[in-house]
Amino acid sequence: MSESKGKMASLSMPEPPVQRALIEPMFHRPYMEGDFWYGITLEWMHSWKTYVGILSKKGSRPAGRRGEREKSSDGQGASGGSGGPPGGIFTAKLQHSHGLAMVPEDAWNTLFGWYGLADGHHIEKCAVYNYGDKVEIEVNHNPFKVMLSNSLKDPACECHIIRFSKAERVGHIEWKIRETFHVKRSVQTRLWGRLEGEDWQPLFDREKTIGKLLDIDSDFIKPDLALEVSDADSIWRGRPARAENTQMNAVGQFYKFSIFEDLSQSWEKDVHDQIDLIGRNLIQKMHQNFNNFMNRARDNLTERELGIQDSERHLEERENEIAEKMKLLEEREVKLGAQISQHNQNVVAFNKDREVMVAQMEEERQELKKNRDEFETEKKDFQDELKRMSQLHRIQESRVKLDIGGQQFTTALQTLQKEPYCFFARMFSGRHSMETNADGSYFIDRDGTHFRYILNYLRDGEVKEGTMPDNESFYNELLIEAEHYQIRGLVEHLKNLIRQCGKPKRRVSPGESPPERSYSTRVSGRSSGDSPPGRSYSPRMPVRSTGDSPIETPYSPRTSGRSSYSSYSSSTGTSSFGVR
User: Which residue stretches does the UniProt record annotate as biased composition, category Gly residues (predicted)?
Assistant: First the structure.
């Protein structure tokens, strides 16, 4: 044993087969909203599974379930040595770890009772939350902007950012805000909340969770919370602007501890108390700094007021100067009268010249009208041509819905035709009659698990680094799909990756020889009607006649356990297309 027995173990440890029989079924439990799961490092979990016989001592570590990953983030050893039980449990935060196994609460309580915690590790408890379209472990707590609703009209109102779980009860959140703003216990309060851009909602039921009341479906939403304090006569007058006018009181009790603190040990609570003390000291210092800022602002305003008084004296002096200049302007007015008389004479001469210019302008206006008529004709022809081009562009950019083995994918027709000689370029070349399902999609009888990688390659024209799992088995599976869809650049890229792994890329059935093909590594820019220079490439796909079985013609070698043929069928089971 390289690790000593963990602290706080409270239960006698049974034999390894008994441990396995009790704990292993719990690992397959699905996520249920409201449950709690706990984080354990993969090293410790691997040591325990080896100890109880779930994994062989020489076997490779399987991919983890849910929170488990292939690599560990902390590199700490949790193994107990040669064949013995592991030491205290190693834990890690879900949002900071790349090697973590999540276990349900009853499994955690049992393991914790047997092994306890390793020194320096803490209980990492996570809530299961329903995000609307899926139920998952909550990785991050949302930041809430909290304030007093009675002071919202003040631009300099005090605000704080506090993180809460979406599964947290309103009773604890309201208690925490009351403590932040030092609200006395005898004073009644109620809580309001809103999402960005929405109206305030009453959060008067302290037993409900904040995520359900505000309909939060993401870890990155930053809601606002306003605590309303009642007046001395118990009348609610400080509700936020545009909030519902109601005198209803909040119901339910306050909760001093959050849903994650009920299992905390005494040493953990001491840490939280120290953090709270540091926070209160920080707030006091912030108040002191704010008061100093206000004093400096008042001094600055006094200086500005003195500056304004000096400006008023300068303004009076300028008014006297303006009066003297007005006298000079009157003298200049007399002189301007004489100049005006001369100007009137010039106007008479100008009128004569204007008549000549008007005649010339009329001639030019006729010429301009003629040119304008010609321009309007050309403009109409151009708009007609632009309209035809716009219609052609919309046809080219039309969306296509594909049903790949039951999974729906929607993309642009132009994306599917980027690879000129691929499966989809021939499918949508217009030379084949195709039928769609009832929902307008084209059904392709292939595994849809890897199709998103095929589609991303057609969109980007390349495989971006870090977008695919680094796994040879995955490369072989994706290669089969790429060969089926005849994506030459992706096939060549995957073959290079498999060669780098130093293992055979895939198996070939007895009596079957591998095909010899030459592929490029980028999506070609040639149209689907061209043929690649210097060689002949004639893939064949199945043809199905109405009411008959499909006539299948192989276009590539079969691989063990997978079909190398595709069929396209509608809801009526009628014919699809074939490309030769």
Answer: 77-87
